[in-house]
């Protein structure tokens, strides 16, 4: 079981075209992305964070995919890294194409 649609937060550091920075220990490197529970202070070490709390279900789903698109297209996050993190969100797994790695058809909820 992953994170509910209204209980996730994504945090990231935009890619700044600096090869090798992801191997340096310490705060998350350029291009780092993480999805976690919307609580605590875990995201404070990142440059940006976003959630979709306080919105309707349709708005939350739209916000989730808009955020994914923003991370990948605007901020240069590797799409596979972002996808693997977003798989932590139940509604993301249910809404992606069933042939995509990690997709969930909902049968696990029965």
Provide an overview of this structure.
The chain has 110 residues and is α+β, with helices and mostly antiparallel strands. It has one domain (8-99). The protein has three helices and three strands; from the N terminus they run E-E-E-H-H-H. The chain has a three-stranded antiparallel beta sheet, with helices on one face. The two termini are 13 Å apart.
What's this model, at a glance?
The protein is of the alpha+beta class and 110 residues long.
**Number of helical stretches of at least 4 residues:** 3
Number of domains: 1
Q: What fraction, in percent, of the residue positions are helical?
A: 25-40%
Q: Any idea what the shape is?
A: globular
Q: How many β-strand runs?
A: 3
Q: The biggest beta sheet, please?
A: 3 strands, antiparallel
Low-confidence stretches: none
Order of helices and strands: EEEHHH
Strand content: 5-15%
Radius of gyration over all CA atoms, rounded: 14 Å
Strand sequence of the main sheet, in spatial order? 2-1-3
The termini sit apart by 13 Å
Summing up helix and strand content along with how strands pair, one would put the structural category as alpha+beta
Arithmetic mean of pLDDT: 87
Please describe the structure with a list of short key phrases separated by commas or semicolons.
110 residues, alpha+beta, three-stranded antiparallel sheet, 29% helix, 13% strand
């Amino acid at each position: 079981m992953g994170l509910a649609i209204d209980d996730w937060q994504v945090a990231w550091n935009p890619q700044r075209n600096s090869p090798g920075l992801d191997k340096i220990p310490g705060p998350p490197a350029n291009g780092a992305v993480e999805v976690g529970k919307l609580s605590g202070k875990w995201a404070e070490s990142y440059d940006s964070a976003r959630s979709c709390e306080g919105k309707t279900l349709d708005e939350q789903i739209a916000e989730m995919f808009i955020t994914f698109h923003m991370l990948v297209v605007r901020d240069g996050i590797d799409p596979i890294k972002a996808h693997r993190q977003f798989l932590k969100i139940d509604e993301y797994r249910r809404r992606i194409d069933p042939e995509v790695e990690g997709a969930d058809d909902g049968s696990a909820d029965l």
